[in-house]
Design a protein that fits this description.
This protein is an all-alpha fold. The chain folds into 2 domains: about 100 residues, Helix-hairpin-Helix base-excision DNA repair enzymes (C-terminal) (Endonuclease Iii, domain 2), CATH 1.10.1670; about 100 residues, Hypothetical protein, domain 2 (Endonuclease III, domain 1, Orthogonal Bundle). It is built from 12 helices and no strands. The longest helix is centred in the middle third of the chain and has 18 residues. It is elongated. The N terminus and C terminus are likely disordered.
Length: about 220
Amino acid sequence: MQISGKNIGREEKIRAVIAYFQETMPEPETELTYESPYELIVAVILSAQCTDKRVNLITPAFFRKFPGPVQLAAARLEEVFEMIKSCSYPNNKAKHLVGMARVLVDEFDNQIPKDIDSLQKLPGVGRKSANVIAAVIHKMPVMPVDTHVFRVSARIGLTRGAKTPLQAENQLYEVFPGDLIPHAHHWLIQHGRYVCQARKPKCTACGLQEVCSYHQNKAPESIT
Protein backbone atom coordinates (compact mmCIF):
# COMPACT_ATOMS: atom_id res chain seq x y z
CA MET A 1 0.00 0.00 0.00
CA GLN A 2 1.41 3.38 -0.98
CA ILE A 3 0.69 6.53 1.02
CA SER A 4 1.88 9.88 -0.18
CA GLY A 5 1.73 13.50 0.80
CA LYS A 6 4.25 15.32 3.00
CA ASN A 7 1.76 17.95 4.16
CA ILE A 8 -0.86 15.45 5.16
CA GLY A 9 -3.30 16.66 7.84
CA ARG A 10 -3.87 14.87 11.11
CA GLU A 11 -7.24 13.36 10.18
CA GLU A 12 -5.86 12.15 6.87
CA LYS A 13 -2.81 10.74 8.67
CA ILE A 14 -5.05 8.76 11.03
CA ARG A 15 -7.16 7.42 8.15
CA ALA A 16 -4.00 6.43 6.26
CA VAL A 17 -2.50 4.64 9.27
CA ILE A 18 -5.71 2.70 9.92
CA ALA A 19 -6.04 1.76 6.26
CA TYR A 20 -2.41 0.60 6.13
CA PHE A 21 -2.71 -1.64 9.16
CA GLN A 22 -6.09 -3.01 8.10
CA GLU A 23 -4.52 -4.05 4.82
CA THR A 24 -1.24 -5.41 6.18
CA MET A 25 -2.50 -6.89 9.49
CA PRO A 26 -6.24 -7.51 9.09
CA GLU A 27 -6.52 -9.97 12.02
CA PRO A 28 -3.71 -9.15 14.46
CA GLU A 29 -3.35 -11.32 17.55
CA THR A 30 -1.13 -11.54 20.58
CA GLU A 31 2.06 -13.52 20.04
CA LEU A 32 1.72 -15.12 23.46
CA THR A 33 0.56 -18.74 23.30
CA TYR A 34 -2.46 -19.51 25.48
CA GLU A 35 -5.65 -21.58 25.50
CA SER A 36 -7.63 -20.04 28.36
CA PRO A 37 -7.96 -16.74 30.24
CA TYR A 38 -5.93 -18.25 33.08
CA GLU A 39 -3.11 -19.17 30.71
CA LEU A 40 -3.11 -15.70 29.19
CA ILE A 41 -2.84 -13.95 32.54
CA VAL A 42 0.09 -16.18 33.51
CA ALA A 43 1.79 -15.45 30.18
CA VAL A 44 1.17 -11.70 30.53
CA ILE A 45 2.73 -11.64 34.01
CA LEU A 46 5.74 -13.57 32.71
CA SER A 47 6.08 -11.26 29.69
CA ALA A 48 6.98 -8.16 31.71
CA GLN A 49 10.43 -7.10 30.44
CA CYS A 50 10.73 -10.48 28.74
CA THR A 51 10.17 -11.53 25.14
CA ASP A 52 7.05 -13.39 24.08
CA LYS A 53 9.33 -16.00 22.51
CA ARG A 54 10.93 -16.77 25.86
CA VAL A 55 7.56 -16.85 27.61
CA ASN A 56 6.22 -19.31 25.04
CA LEU A 57 9.15 -21.62 25.79
CA ILE A 58 8.36 -21.57 29.51
CA THR A 59 4.58 -21.89 29.60
CA PRO A 60 3.92 -25.39 28.15
CA ALA A 61 5.67 -27.16 31.04
CA PHE A 62 4.31 -24.60 33.49
CA PHE A 63 0.71 -25.27 32.46
CA ARG A 64 1.22 -29.02 32.66
CA LYS A 65 2.33 -28.64 36.27
CA PHE A 66 -0.13 -25.85 37.18
CA PRO A 67 -3.14 -26.28 34.86
CA GLY A 68 -5.35 -23.85 36.76
CA PRO A 69 -5.53 -21.29 39.58
CA VAL A 70 -6.21 -23.95 42.26
CA GLN A 71 -2.98 -25.83 41.54
CA LEU A 72 -0.94 -22.64 41.26
CA ALA A 73 -2.42 -21.19 44.46
CA ALA A 74 -1.24 -24.28 46.35
CA ALA A 75 2.27 -24.19 44.89
CA ARG A 76 5.45 -23.41 46.79
CA LEU A 77 7.34 -20.36 45.59
CA GLU A 78 10.46 -22.46 45.10
CA GLU A 79 8.80 -24.82 42.62
CA VAL A 80 7.27 -21.95 40.67
CA PHE A 81 10.68 -20.26 40.56
CA GLU A 82 12.24 -23.41 39.13
CA MET A 83 9.68 -23.45 36.32
CA ILE A 84 10.22 -19.82 35.31
CA LYS A 85 13.85 -19.12 36.22
CA SER A 86 14.90 -18.59 32.60
CA CYS A 87 12.73 -15.46 32.30
CA SER A 88 13.54 -12.02 33.69
CA TYR A 89 12.92 -11.31 37.39
CA PRO A 90 11.84 -14.86 38.29
CA ASN A 91 11.77 -14.22 42.04
CA ASN A 92 9.23 -11.41 41.79
CA LYS A 93 7.24 -13.16 39.10
CA ALA A 94 6.99 -16.36 41.17
CA LYS A 95 5.52 -14.32 44.02
CA HIS A 96 3.14 -12.53 41.65
CA LEU A 97 1.96 -15.75 40.01
CA VAL A 98 1.18 -17.53 43.27
CA GLY A 99 -0.40 -14.38 44.71
CA MET A 100 -2.50 -13.89 41.57
CA ALA A 101 -3.77 -17.47 41.74
CA ARG A 102 -4.67 -17.15 45.42
CA VAL A 103 -6.67 -13.98 44.80
CA LEU A 104 -8.49 -15.68 41.90
CA VAL A 105 -9.37 -18.63 44.15
CA ASP A 106 -10.26 -16.61 47.25
CA GLU A 107 -12.02 -13.59 45.73
CA PHE A 108 -13.08 -14.38 42.16
CA ASP A 109 -14.22 -18.02 42.23
CA ASN A 110 -11.35 -19.03 39.91
CA GLN A 111 -12.62 -16.70 37.18
CA ILE A 112 -10.64 -13.95 35.47
CA PRO A 113 -12.47 -10.66 36.21
CA LYS A 114 -13.57 -8.48 33.33
CA ASP A 115 -13.22 -4.93 34.60
CA ILE A 116 -9.90 -3.12 34.73
CA ASP A 117 -10.08 -2.20 38.41
CA SER A 118 -10.71 -5.79 39.49
CA LEU A 119 -7.94 -7.09 37.26
CA GLN A 120 -5.51 -4.70 38.92
CA LYS A 121 -6.26 -6.30 42.29
CA LEU A 122 -4.33 -9.33 41.06
CA PRO A 123 -0.64 -9.35 42.06
CA GLY A 124 1.60 -8.70 39.08
CA VAL A 125 -1.17 -7.06 37.06
CA GLY A 126 -0.80 -3.32 36.51
CA ARG A 127 -2.84 -1.12 34.21
CA LYS A 128 -1.06 -2.16 31.03
CA SER A 129 -1.40 -5.87 31.81
CA ALA A 130 -5.03 -5.42 32.83
CA ASN A 131 -5.72 -3.71 29.52
CA VAL A 132 -4.02 -6.55 27.62
CA ILE A 133 -6.21 -9.15 29.34
CA ALA A 134 -9.38 -7.11 28.90
CA ALA A 135 -8.63 -6.47 25.23
CA VAL A 136 -7.56 -9.99 24.28
CA ILE A 137 -9.96 -12.07 26.37
CA HIS A 138 -12.97 -9.81 26.71
CA LYS A 139 -12.53 -7.78 23.48
CA MET A 140 -12.94 -4.56 25.43
CA PRO A 141 -12.01 -1.24 23.77
CA VAL A 142 -8.98 -0.61 25.96
CA MET A 143 -5.49 0.37 24.88
CA PRO A 144 -2.52 -1.28 26.60
CA VAL A 145 0.50 1.00 26.23
CA ASP A 146 3.87 -0.72 26.45
CA THR A 147 7.21 0.63 25.26
CA HIS A 148 6.44 -0.29 21.63
CA VAL A 149 3.02 1.38 21.58
CA PHE A 150 4.39 4.47 23.33
CA ARG A 151 7.32 4.80 20.93
CA VAL A 152 5.53 4.02 17.67
CA SER A 153 2.50 6.20 18.33
CA ALA A 154 4.77 9.14 19.18
CA ARG A 155 7.01 8.63 16.16
CA ILE A 156 4.16 8.40 13.69
CA GLY A 157 2.49 11.40 15.29
CA LEU A 158 -0.63 9.67 16.57
CA THR A 159 0.18 10.99 20.05
CA ARG A 160 1.58 14.45 20.70
CA GLY A 161 3.58 15.40 23.75
CA ALA A 162 2.53 12.40 25.83
CA LYS A 163 4.91 12.05 28.78
CA THR A 164 3.42 8.92 30.37
CA PRO A 165 1.77 5.70 29.16
CA LEU A 166 -1.55 6.91 30.59
CA GLN A 167 -1.36 10.14 28.61
CA ALA A 168 -0.58 8.16 25.46
CA GLU A 169 -3.44 5.76 26.19
CA ASN A 170 -5.93 8.59 26.56
CA GLN A 171 -4.77 10.23 23.34
CA LEU A 172 -5.01 6.96 21.41
CA TYR A 173 -8.66 6.59 22.44
CA GLU A 174 -9.23 9.77 20.42
CA VAL A 175 -7.33 8.36 17.42
CA PHE A 176 -8.88 4.92 16.91
CA PRO A 177 -12.60 4.08 16.76
CA GLY A 178 -13.70 1.90 19.66
CA ASP A 179 -14.16 -1.23 17.56
CA LEU A 180 -10.57 -0.96 16.28
CA ILE A 181 -8.81 -0.25 19.59
CA PRO A 182 -8.09 -3.93 20.43
CA HIS A 183 -6.62 -4.34 16.93
CA ALA A 184 -4.69 -1.07 17.19
CA HIS A 185 -2.84 -2.32 20.26
CA HIS A 186 -1.49 -5.30 18.29
CA TRP A 187 -0.80 -3.18 15.21
CA LEU A 188 1.43 -0.78 17.11
CA ILE A 189 3.20 -3.50 19.12
CA GLN A 190 4.06 -5.61 16.09
CA HIS A 191 5.09 -2.58 14.07
CA GLY A 192 7.41 -1.60 16.94
CA ARG A 193 8.88 -5.08 17.27
CA TYR A 194 9.62 -5.72 13.63
CA VAL A 195 9.81 -2.37 11.82
CA CYS A 196 9.85 0.73 14.03
CA GLN A 197 12.48 -0.62 16.38
CA ALA A 198 13.89 1.51 19.18
CA ARG A 199 17.52 1.88 18.11
CA LYS A 200 17.47 1.24 14.38
CA PRO A 201 14.01 1.75 12.91
CA LYS A 202 13.65 0.16 9.48
CA CYS A 203 12.23 3.24 7.85
CA THR A 204 12.99 2.15 4.29
CA ALA A 205 10.95 -1.02 4.85
CA CYS A 206 8.02 0.87 6.38
CA GLY A 207 4.83 1.55 4.47
CA LEU A 208 4.06 4.53 6.70
CA GLN A 209 7.03 6.67 5.66
CA GLU A 210 4.98 9.38 4.02
CA VAL A 211 2.73 9.98 7.02
CA CYS A 212 5.29 9.37 9.76
CA SER A 213 6.45 12.47 11.62
CA TYR A 214 9.68 10.78 12.68
CA HIS A 215 10.60 9.86 9.11
CA GLN A 216 9.70 13.27 7.72
CA ASN A 217 11.84 15.04 10.32
CA LYS A 218 14.94 12.85 9.92
CA ALA A 219 17.86 13.75 7.68
CA PRO A 220 17.89 11.35 4.70
CA GLU A 221 21.36 9.99 5.50
CA SER A 222 20.29 9.07 9.04
CA ILE A 223 17.35 6.90 8.00
CA THR A 224 18.01 3.17 7.82
